[in-house]
Amino acid sequence: MTRTQAGTKSHSGAAALVALALTSVALPAAPALAAGKMTISTPQDPGSWDPVDTFLVQWAAVATNVFDGLTYRGPDLKLVPGLAESWEELDEGKRIRFKLRQNVKFHNGEPFNAEAVKFTFDRLLGEQGAKGPQRSNYTAIESVEIIDDTTVDMKLKAPDPVLLTKLAGYGAMIVPPKYIQENGEDNFNLHPVGTGAFKFVSYAPKVNIALAANPDYWGGAPKLSELDYRFITEPATAVAELQAGRVDLVIPPTIPIGMLPVIEADSNLQIVSVPGPTVDALRFNTRDGITADPRVRKAIIMAVDRATIVQSILAGQGSEIANFQGALSFGYDPELKPLPYDPEGAKKLLAEAGVKPGSTLQIDIRGNDTTMNEVTQVIASYLQMVGITATIKPYETNVLLNDIIPQGKTGAMFQQKWGGWTFDYDNTAYSMYHSGEKWNPYEKDAELDRLLESQRPLTDRAERERILKDIGKYTAEKAYEVPLYNTNAIYGVSKKVKGFIAPPDNRLKLTDVTVE
Fold first, then answer.
1. Widest distance between CA atoms in the chain
2. pLDDT digit of tens for each residue in the chain (516 aa)?
3. How far apart are CA 267 and CA 263, in angstroms?
4. Distance of alpha carbon 430 from alpha carbon 174, whole angstroms
5. Are 487 and 473 in contact (CB under 8 A)?
6. What burial letters (b/e) apply to 444-474, b meaning 16+ CB within 10 Å?
7. Is 88 in contact with 17 (CB distance < 8 Å)?
8. Is residue 496 classed exposed, middle or buried when 0-12, 13-18 and 19+ CB atoms within 10 A define those classes?
């Protein structure tokens, strides 16, 4: 067996990965006395705090402080132990044995143990998980078996090279069995209980969620006593509250590029910008209307000068993309180039497809995304130049994401912003393109399904990367979306905030932050 420090990449299915780092965390002799409150502006209320119910980065911006996974990945993107203090891969990657931290309790006093881990994954892979969007990320798991109170074996149907990263977030967050069984699923949605550094206090839908320090946190008590997340959908309001001192931190993707100078000019504030995984695109309705024709889709891509959009509207806070992933994504192909800006070529393709000048289409966007609103206005102007009249329809974000897109009720084009939080193209591509997935309401492509499924069990990184690049080329050739840009994660921060390290994926863990 090969032993490897946590976070190191394994190159063989036969090799065992053993996480030895942080096998013990020095706990204070007595809980530190937390003091101070931090107020954070987030643009979206996820509506449920149950880990199996969500894919939203705004959920993780809050819930990373409430819940823990078996593993943890911080702002440096390195994978380290979480509630599992070590693990080893066995049976050629088809079994993972986790050694669990001892003397950890949920916020309600319930013990964290092997039973809680088994309950979490039985629930995620069962009837409750089937109601939400997270289960498909964990289908490689066949079962979780209890070895003893502090040891579990996770048996896999096939190796999943991204699973350890997936266990660091979202659906894999460990939940309390007794609390959920006694209080019910609906209660858990609104009154979450985890093992994290902060405890749930109150939740007012569309207003705020308040958290308080957990002095008994296994990783050491947080330095702040309170966190207050305010749901502020209007960017101008969020920035105004930051300027007034009523908000200490504004998290992505709230701040429009046009408002960056306002924050930079304020001596009490600063902008923190880091490259992130988030990509933006306008995806196509490939079932109905003129965009059912791939020639039309390619023409629309060629009609849009995306490089100019990145420089002019994003002020360089991003980069043009050739498909729906950024350069930090495993599977990114630097040789794949975006279709060039070519309005004359676009007109020829439209003519070949029989699209007459004056044809119309609708673009659906998130109504509170000021930057995308500006981008789509410019795109509409580009399309007008090749004979297509575009109208822009803004939706309340949750309506667009939970009703319009999954139900296949979009216009010809619709906004898709995707965090790709695993920094692995599988997480994006499988969700976007596999038949039957929530974010793929229009396409059923057997060849693409085969490619997507074939790479998931591979432990040979080079072979898996090759297939992911093939998937990227395939989707670019099919022109399933107008790939726009990979954006930086932009935070507006009060200079009173100390110790804040900006995560590229919005997963804020505020244990070591203070506010003067």
1. 76
2. 223 233 333 333 333 333 333 333 333 334 444 579 999 999 999 999 999 998 888 999 999 999 999 999 999 989 999 999 999 999 988 999 999 999 999 999 999 999 999 999 999 999 999 998 899 889 999 999 999 999 999 999 988 889 999 999 999 999 999 999 999 999 999 999 999 999 999 999 999 999 999 999 999 999 999 999 999 999 999 999 999 999 999 999 889 888 999 999 999 999 999 988 899 999 999 999 999 999 999 999 999 999 999 999 999 899 999 999 999 899 999 999 999 999 999 999 999 999 999 999 999 999 988 889 999 999 999 999 999 999 999 999 989 999 999 999 999 999 999 988 889 999 899 999 999 999 999 999 999 999 999 998 888 899 999 999 999 999 999 999 999 999 999 999 999 999 999 999 999 999 999 999
3. 8
4. 24
5. no
6. ebeebbebbeebbbbbeeeebbebbbebbeb
7. yes
8. middle
What tokens appear for 75 in the block?
């702002």
* CA R_g for the chain: 23
Amino acid occupying residue 431: S
Q: Which residues pair with residue 90 across a beta bridge?
A: 95
Is 0.85 topped by the overall pTM?
no
For 456, which DSSP code? T
Q: Do 314 and 479 form a contact (C-beta atoms < 8 A)? A: no
Contacts of 147 (CB under 8 A, 6+ apart): 97, 114, 153
Report residue 468 as tokens. Answer: 């992911």
